[in-house]
Design brief:
Mean pLDDT: 94
Largest sheet: 10 strands, mixed
Oligomer: single chain
Helix content: 25-40%
Number of domains: 3
CATH architecture of the largest domain: 2-Layer Sandwich
């Protein structure tokens, strides 16, 4: 169906050659949201930047989040006012910078007789939330009566319900937010290569400074070729793997407390486009989040984790815990048989001797100078990624002994790839979706999905259909994804494995059948673009099945 091409292979080859050829101002090891946003910020400032990751962009924590753009109302209980203040401002920036894959959405916290969420606590939280956002949130927090609450969410447990707090945060496609940062960094000249593992640091001994980091020795996961990457500053942004990476220098100090969070996807639990905060058996708050119109995404758990980091399975015990939490506030709404898919993620929390539990460990971040020319940034929460990147690049500019006035941060006034030029997403959809439905005779859900997912880049996908009408066929029944997306993603988004495509570029793994009914179709079509023979296609399918974190 597709023309034989190796655009993606040639581009990767060129990027690998550039990694080995140049000395970079900054080399970033780890391409989750923190590393990706640092690459964008630094490249925008005119610095020579490279970023690598042993897996795919966002393959760790950054695609395993609750997919929320939120300031974190619950952190107020732990006195995290600075964090919530910064996150409030960054949340509104994200809506402007990535209007296609972020969206404001109301949240609702029920107040029950003898429940942990009292009127006094929530009055304080809602008021402070508004103050910290300088009253610039989508709308002010307000209390709803019992009747108003049930009007919005009719199947909420009502016997002891008194009222609810109604306030605003947002939702996002976390893996694609990370990707848009990478694509934006590339537009400003950064070299970004996934599936390249940093094996060891290149160091030189300086009589005054001691062991100075000068780059990394890396290995290409596909060809197993070794690459030497030289850099004036190296930044370790490997999230949960931070301590492991620092150990490569023989440093045994422990910076992180790693916790595991899981999420499940089920049929839609209620119709309202509202996130409802529920309470688990152990009193932990969890979210029921509307997901892709037809589903609910529910999570997250928060438990200490010390097992293997590269594959974090979702256990039956995890599933039972989340299902029980849902049924506490939505009695009899789901059983474990209603779970469509599940996923997990690890949180890299900065070790705090004072924190009694996983939940009250701080979500703030720190930048350490691990060795001369080696910075480590860790901790933080997703919504403040731009702020974290700004502080990290400021520190790099200092280490590089450059004048900060000559290299100012430009991200706060900018939009990211896919969002540039969109001032109002609803207007943008109104302008583009109806004519595309008419011209290509496609269903609303297909066109809406494409414009929402790719933003301004949607035009490239429809240009592919102009050349080959068969590319508008769906990849699978009941899902809005079409064949043209495979070509676009492979040729423009550095997608090199089946897991890259199904787990992160699209959300196919998260919805019906975990994509197991269309995995062969995608493998064949990707294989045509990436020169996979039958053996490699089969290996990719097997690897994808292994990468799925939950087996029903």
């Amino acid at each position: 169906m597709f023309n034989m091409t190796s655009i993606a292979i040639e581009q990767r080859k060129k990027d690998l050659e550039l990694l080995a050829k140049h000395e970079f101002d900054i080399l970033i090891v780890g391409a989750g949201i923190t590393g990706a946003s640092i690459a964008w910020d630094a490249a925008m400032r005119g610095l020579k930047v490279a970023i690598i990751d042993k897996e795919d962009f966002g393959a760790g924590t950054s695609s395993g989040s609750s997919k929320l753009v939120h300031a974190g109302i619950r952190y107020l209980a732990y006195g995290e006012f600075k964090l919530v203040g910064h996150a409030s401002r960054e949340r509104m920036w994200m809506f402007r910078a990535l209007p296609h894959i972020t969206e404001p959405i109301p949240f609702l916290i029920p107040v029950y007789k003898k429940g942990k969420n009292t009127f006094a606590k929530l009055l304080f939280a809602g008021t402070v939330y508004d103050i910290l956002s300088k009253f610039k949130n989508t709308d002010k927090a307000a209390f709803l009566s019992k009747d108003q609450t049930l009007e919005k969410i009719p199947n909420l447990r009502s016997d002891t319900l008194k009222r609810s707090l109604f306030y605003w945060d947002g939702i996002m496609d976390d893996a694609r937010v990370t990707l848009e940062n990478i694509l934006s960094a590339r537009e400003y000249g950064a070299i970004a290569v996934n599936h390249v593992k940093a094996e060891s640091f290149i160091t030189e001994t300086d009589s005054e400074l001691g062991e100075v980091v000068k780059g990394v020795n890396a290995i290409d996961s596909f060809s197993e070729e070794k690459i030497t990457i030289k850099a004036k500053v190296v930044i370790n942004t490997t999230g949960p793997w931070t301590d492991q990476v620092i150990r490569k220098l023989g440093d045994e100090s422990k910076l992180l407390r790693i916790t595991k969070g899981i999420h499940i996807i089920t049929k839609k639990i209620f119709d309202s486009n509202t996130v409802v905060v529920i309470t688990a058996d152990d009193k932990r708050g969890m979210f029921v989040i509307p997901f892709r119109r037809k589903y609910s995404l529910i999570g997250t758990t928060d438990t200490d984790y010390q097992d293997k980091f590269d594959h974090v399975p979702v256990t039956q015990e995890d599933i039972d815990y989340v299902v029980s939490a849902v049924n506490n506030d939505f009695p009899g709404s789901i059983t474990k048989d209603d779970v469509i898919s599940a996923y997990s993620g690890l949180r890299p929390l900065i070790l705090s001797p004072k924190a009694k539990s996983e939940t009250d460990t701080s979500r703030w971040f720190e930048i350490f100078e691990t060795r001369p020319n080696l910075l480590t940034i860790t901790g933080g929460k997703y919504t403040i990624f731009r702020h974290m990147a700004e502080k990290a690049v400021d520190k790099c500019v200092k280490v590089l002994e450059l004048n900060k006035k000559d290299y100012p941060c430009k991200t706060e006034e900018s939009q990211l790839h896919g969002g540039v030029g969109i001032t109002n997403m609803i207007d943008y959809l109104r302008k583009h979706v109806p004519p595309l439905i008419k011209k290509y005779e496609l269903d609303f859900e297909v066109v809406d999905h494409i414009v929402h997912t790719y933003g301004t880049a949607h035009t490239i996908i429809f240009n592919l259909i102009d050349k080959n009408n068969k590319l508008k066929e769906r990849i699978a029944e009941n899902r809005p994804h079409i064949l043209a997306e495979i070509i676009y993603i492979v040729e423009n988004e550095m997608c090199h494995t089946l897991s890259d495509f199904l787990l992160r570029r699209t959300q196919l793994q998260l919805i019906d059948n975990q994509a197991l009914d269309c995995v062969e179709t995608v493998a064949v079509e990707m294989g045509k673009l990436l020169m996979w023979d039958k053996k490699r296609q089969k290996e990719e399918i097997e690897n994808y099945k292994k990468d799925i974190m939950w087996k029903p």
